[in-house]
Amino acid sequence: MGRYLVTGGAGFLGSHLAAALCRRGDAVVVLDDLSTGSRERLAACGGGAELVVGSAADRDLVGRLLGGCAGVFHLAASVGVGLLAKRPAAAMANNLATSVVVLEEAAARGVPCLFTSSSEVYGTRARLPLREDAALQLPALSQPRGGYACSKAAGEALALALHRERGFRVVVARLFNVVGPGQSPRYGMVLPRFVQQALRGEPLTVYGDGAQTRCFTRAGDVVACLLRLFALPAASGQVVNVGSDQEVSILALAELVRHATGSPSAVVHRPFAEAYPDLTDVERRVPDLTRLRGLLGSVPSTPIADVVGEVVAMLRTPALVPPQG
Ligand code: UDP
Question: Which residue of 8, 89, 135, 216 pairs with 75 in a disulfide if CB–CB is 3.0 to 4.6 A?
Fold first, then answer.
């Protein structure tokens, strides 16, 4: 049992992680500015998590909260194509500043860290499956996707430099399209959007022909991997893809949602550029999970149809839907 700081712990994935730590009997301090997170998400912690409302870029605050901690999970970030397209400068500045502060303060105090990065760092044209040791080709920095990728890659580089220079214990997890109950449709993520559209009897908006693919990963599966990676000395100083390698097209996802909801909603195709004029879509994204499996042995991988079912069940039951921040 220990005390852990979870930055971004009132967000979608952060609150799943905080709840898992609480279930384990750990004491949890959540630092969240509630920009996209919400207090109500911590209900699953059953009072076991203390929420501190503030910024992970606040050096004094982060330093204070790290005191007595056995570890820090850094998840605070501006995420989602909707948010990136609307406020690219703020998203970029927030992601850079929070990463620098959390990593430096944790390293200075010798508090082990798990840094969450993103599959976005692989850009739009990398060779598949995506391997951690491949040289990165960032997307054009003139578009928000490039800025986001760059901010996460910079955080990774700082984490690794602190590891090399000072023996800082840190794991970098590159996350791949995390989905599950509690994810808001507000910031563009496709699964909650499709489910919401289906339940409202609205058309499901597929961008382009829908042949683009993703490997969706259940939040609970991601959390299980993050906790095990954090505890594993061999993972320190490593960059590790965390996700599933079940590749699914967006059109197939739309069909799964229609099936799970029994919705009469039609699928309509819209040009991606109409929704996000400043962004380029990623055609395929598939992680190489050799490193993750090498470190952890078996890796949980809930079938996407089951995750779709869970998301539908939650959005169907208004009492279970966490209010969106
Ligand atoms: N997408 C879609 N309709 C939507 C939202 C997203 O067809 O209403 C597509 C989007 O073009 C992308 C995929 O779903 O190809 C995944 O989008 P998301 O924003 O969830 O994740 P990301 O693109 O960041 O991987």
Answer: 8
